[in-house]
Write a structure and sequence with these properties.
This protein has seven helices and no strands. With 159 residues, it is mostly helical.
Length: 159
């Protein structure tokens, strides 16, 4: 039984789609943390760890890096004429569109609501609980993430 588990783990770690996905996700999140560090020298270690592990939004888009890496790797493993490639390609489009469109708009609306709520709260002396501000992506962030995911997948699948 243990031998089968070891073989399964080994197979996953040799899978180009899996490796491309993991590497692109962590590389994008690490780049995001590095950018935070370079642009905000007072960033705490907690903020950097949070950025690497969890934070959404910012440069580059880890969502875009992930889905483009998966799609590119599937092109290598299954071919561009496969059903799996078609599925991953359109899934990538949905994820990228959502990151730039819906999530970004929702985040901007939440920011406006929080600003308005804070002003009304101060003026009328009532309590206000801010809503969560979701960080979407700008077009340059999506392009950077997509290029990163593409080249990571190329490297994983050709080297």
């Amino acid at each position: 039984m243990e031998h089968h588990k070891a073989q399964a783990v080994e197979a996953i770690l040799k899978n180009g789609v899996f490796l491309s996905a993991v590497l692109s996700l962590f590389t994008a999140q690490f780049a995001k943390a590095l950018i935070v560090l370079l642009t905000n020298r007072k960033a705490s270690i907690q903020e950097l760890i949070s950025t690497i592990l969890w934070r959404t939004g910012g440069m580059p888009s880890s969502h875009s890096a992930l889905v483009v890496a998966i799609t590119t790797s599937i092109a290598f493993s299954s071919g561009v004429t496969s059903d799996l490639f078609a599925l991953s390609f359109f899934f990538a489009l949905v994820v990228i569109r959502d990151a730039m469109g819906v999530r970004r708009s929702a985040g901007l609306q939440a920011k406006a609501l929080n600003s308005l709520g804070t002003k009304v709260s101060k003026r009328l002396h009532i309590s206000f609980k801010p809503v969560k501000e979701i960080n979407g992506h700008t077009f340059p962030q999506v392009i950077a993430g997509s290029v990163m995911g593409f080249f990571i997948a190329m490297a994983v699948n050709t080297l």
